C-alpha cells in the first residue's frame, strides 16, 4: 500500500486572474483556500491521516492548493470531499439568490449544475515517499485532460450574452433571440439583486459595489462576488477573518484615474530546498527516514504559513495602504493603492474623505524593506517578485497577467530579485530587474548632472545616444554613463567584479550571491540593455 498521497486541483491561477474587481479576487482566493482546507480537515478528522503540508494553522485563508498526506487517502474519497465542497458553494449561492428574490421565475438550475460538475480538474497521485508522490503528481499534471464547459466561457464580458447569469438564461438563443429585449430583463435582475443586498446592510443607495446594477456576470463571476457577503459565506462555512463588507472600498482606477501597484511573488527552487532539508541525515530504516523528512517538511510549511499570516500581512497592509489578496506561504499576491485619509464632511450616510495619491516611489520604498521581512521566516531560501505599476485604464485581468509575467521574468533573469514593470494604458510596458541586495542602493545612489536626483537627465541622455546608435556594440558607453550617474556605487561595484555582475552558487546549487545580470552572458550587451532599462523605468517611477 502506498504511503503518501499528493493532491491538487486546477485551474487555480486562471480562476483568480479572471476577476473584474478586487472583491472578486478576494472571493476567488477564499474559495481556493476553502477547497484545500476542507480536503486537509477531512483527511485528518474523518480518515485519521496526517497532513504533512500545508501545515494546518488557525487560519483558512492562504491554504496552498497542493496537499501532501501521509497515508492512503483513496482517490474516490478525496474526490468526493472536493466535489461536495465545491458543490456546496455553488448550491448555496444559487439558493441564496432564489430565496432573496422569490418573485422571479427561475429556470437556470441546469446551467448551475454544469458549473457544479465540470468547473475543476482533480489530480491525485501516490508514492512510497513524499518526493515520489510529489513527482508522480507533477507527471500526472503534464498529461492532463481537462473536461470543461467553456462553450460559454469563464467571463460574460469576453464570450457574449449567452453566458450572463440571470433566472431565464437558458431561454435565450444568441443565434435567433434579440439581445436588446433580453438586456432589459438582465438589468432588472441585477438592479433587484443590488437593492436586496443594500437592504440587508441597511444602505439607502444599493449595495455600494458588491453587485453593480449595470453589471452582467457569468455564473463563476457571480459566485466569486456572492461569497464575500457575510450571510452567504456563513452558509458555506467560509470564515473571513476580515469581512469584506459594503464599507470596504473597492478599487475604481478608471473613474478616479488611480495608478496602482500590484505584485506577485514566489519562493525560488522550493522543491530543491525542501529535498536538501530532508536529506541531511542518514537513518537505519526507511520509516525513520520518512519520519524525519515529514518533520522537516511540516516545520518548513509551518514557518512559511506563519510568515504569510503575520510578517507579510503586516508589511503589505502597513498604514492601510495595501491588501493581501492571497498568501500561501511562499506564493503571494497583493496590491498597493491610495486610501482615504482625512474626513472632510458627513452630510449624508457615507462619510466623505480626501484622497492622497500613492506614488510609484512610495511603492518602491516599501520594497526596500522586503528582504528583511522575507528573512523573518528564518528559512535559507530566496524569493522572486514581479511588481507592476499599472496605469488606470488597464483592465484588472490584464494587470494580473502582467504580474505573472513580471514574476517569471524575475526568475528567468536569475531569481532572488524583483522585476519592475511599468504598464501603460495602451498595453505597452517597460521592464527592469534587479537583485534585492542592490535595489535600494541603486535608486538612492542616483545623482544627476546638477547633483540632484532628477531622472530626466539620464533618460534624455539615453534617448539622444540611442538615436545616434551610440550603444550599438559599444558597451563602454553604458559603462561610462554608469560611472557618471552612479559615482559612489560605481566605486564599490565596478564592472570587473564578478560578484556584482553574475550569480554565484555553491556546489549544492545554493545561492551565495546574486548579480545584476544573473546568468553569465556577453558582458557589454547584457549590461547595456540592463542599464538602458534602468534609465527608462527609473524615469517613470520618479516622474
Largest sheet: 6 strands, mixed
Count of domain modules = 3
Tell me the CATH superfamily of the largest domain. CRISPR-Cas system, Cmr2 subunit, D1 domain, cysteine cluster
- What general form does the structure show? globular
Count of helix runs:
21
CATH class of the largest domain: Alpha Beta
Helix content: 40-55%
Strand order of the largest sheet: 6-7-5-10-11-12
CATH architecture of the largest domain: 2-Layer Sandwich
Strand content: 5-15%
Mean model confidence by pLDDT: 86
Low-confidence blocks of residues = 153-159, 342-346
Radius of gyration, in angstroms, nearest whole number: 26 Å
First-to-last CA distance = 63 Å
CATH names the topology of the largest domain as Alpha-Beta Plaits
Number of beta-strand segments: 14
Structural class: alpha+beta
What can you tell me about this protein's structure?
This protein has 543 residues and is α+β, with helices and mostly antiparallel strands. It folds into three domains: 4-246, 2-Layer Sandwich (Alpha-Beta Plaits), CATH 3.30.70; 260-440, Reverse transcriptase/Diguanylate cyclase domain (Alpha-Beta Plaits, 2-Layer Sandwich); 445-543, no CATH class. The chain contains 21 helices and 14 strands. The strands form four sheets. The protein has a six-stranded mixed β-sheet with strand order 6-7-5-10-11-12, with helices on both faces. Strands 2-3-1-4 form a four-stranded antiparallel β-sheet. Strands 8-9 form a two-stranded antiparallel ribbon. Helix 2 crosses helix 8 (219-226), helix 3 packs antiparallel against helix 4 (109-118) and helix 18 (475-485) packs across helix 21 (523-541). Residues 153-159 and 342-346 have low confidence and may be disordered.
Amino acid at each position: 500500500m502506498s504511503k503518501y498521497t499528493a493532491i491538487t486541483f486546477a485551474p487555480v491561477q486562471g480562476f483568480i486572474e479572471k476577476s473584474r474587481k478586487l472583491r472578486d479576487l478576494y472571493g476567488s482566493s477564499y474559495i481556493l483556500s476553502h477547497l484545500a482546507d476542507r480536503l486537509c480537515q477531512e483527511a485528518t478528522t474523518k480518515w485519521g491521516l496526517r497532513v504533512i503540508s500545508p501545515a494546518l494553522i488557525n487560519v483558512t485563508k492562504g491554504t496552498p492548493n497542493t496537499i501532501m498526506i501521509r497515508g492512503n487517502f483513496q482517490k474516490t474519497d478525496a474526490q468526493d470531499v472536493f466535489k461536495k465542497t465545491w458543490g456546496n458553494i455553488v448550491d448555496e449561492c444559487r439558493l441564496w439568490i432564489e430565496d432573496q428574490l422569490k418573485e422571479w421565475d427561475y429556470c437556470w438550475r441546469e446551467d448551475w449544475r454544469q458549473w457544479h460538475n465540470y468547473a475543476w480538474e482533480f489530480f491525485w497521485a501516490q508514492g512510497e515517499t513524499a518526493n515520489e508522490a510529489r513527482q508522480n503528481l507533477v507527471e500526472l499534471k503534464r498529461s492532463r485532460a481537462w473536461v470543461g464547459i467553456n462553450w460559454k466561457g469563464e467571463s460574460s464580458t469576453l464570450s457574449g450574452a449567452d453566458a450572463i447569469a440571470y433566472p431565464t438564461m437558458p431561454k435565450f438563443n444568441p443565434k435567433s433571440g434579440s439581445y436588446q429585449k433580453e438586456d432589459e430583463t438582465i438589468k432588472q435582475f441585477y438592479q433587484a439583486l443590488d437593492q436586496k443586498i443594500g437592504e440587508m446592510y441597511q444602505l439607502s443607495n444599493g449595495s455600494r459595489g458588491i453587485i453593480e446594477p449595470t453589471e452582467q456576470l457569468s455564473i463563476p463571476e457571480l459566485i466569486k462576488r456572492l461569497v464575500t457577503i457575510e450571510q452567504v459565506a456563513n452558509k458555506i462555512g467560509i470564515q473571513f477573518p476580515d469581512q469584506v463588507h459594503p464599507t470596504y472600498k473597492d478599487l475604481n482606477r478608471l473613474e478616479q484615474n488611480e495608478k496602482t501597484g500590484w505584485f506577485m511573488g514566489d519562493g525560488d527552487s522550493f522543491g530543491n530546498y525542501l529535498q536538501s532539508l530532508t536529506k541531511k541525515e542518514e537513518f537505519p530504516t526507511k520509516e525513520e527516514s520518512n519520519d524525519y523528512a515529514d518533520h522537516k517538511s511540516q516545520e518548513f510549511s509551518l514557518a512559511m504559513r506563519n510568515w504569510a499570516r503575520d510578517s507579510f500581512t503586516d508589511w503589505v497592509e502597513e498604514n492601510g495602504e495595501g491588501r493581501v489578496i492571497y498568501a500561501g506561504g511562499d506564493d503571494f499576491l497583493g496590491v498597493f493603492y491610495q486610501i482615504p485619509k482625512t474626513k472632510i464632511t458627513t452630510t449624508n450616510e457615507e462619510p466623505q474623505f480626501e484622497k492622497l495619491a500613492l506614488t510609484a516611489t512610495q511603492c518602491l520604498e516599501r520594497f526596500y524593506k522586503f528582504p528583511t521581512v522575507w528573512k523573518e521566516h528564518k528559512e535559507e531560501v530566496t524569493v522572486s517578485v514581479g511588481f507592476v505599476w499599472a496605469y488606470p485604464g488597464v483592465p484588472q485581468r490584464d494587470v494580473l497577467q502582467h504580474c505573472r509575467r513580471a514574476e517569471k521574468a524575475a526568475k528567468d533573469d536569475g531569481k532572488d530579485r524583483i522585476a519592475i514593470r511599468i504598464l501603460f494604458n495602451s498595453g505597452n510596458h517597460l521592464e527592469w530587474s534587479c537583485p534585492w541586495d542592490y535595489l535600494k542602493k541603486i535608486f538612492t545612489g542616483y545623482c544627476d548632472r546638477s547633483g540632484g536626483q532628477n531622472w530626466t537627465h539620464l533618460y534624455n541622455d539615453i534617448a539622444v545616444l540611442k538615436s545616434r546608435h551610440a550603444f550599438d556594440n559599444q558597451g563602454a558607453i553604458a559603462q561610462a554613463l554608469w560611472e557618471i550617474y552612479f559615482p559612489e556605487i560605481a566605486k564599490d561595484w565596478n564592472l570587473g567584479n564578478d560578484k556584482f555582475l553574475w550569480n554565484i552558487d555553491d556546489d549544492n546549487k545554493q545561492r551565495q550571491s546574486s548579480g545584476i545580470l544573473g546568468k553569465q552572458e556577453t558582458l557589454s550587451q547584457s549590461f547595456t540593455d540592463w542599464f538602458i532599462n534602468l534609465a527608462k523605468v527609473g524615469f517613470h517611477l520618479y516622474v
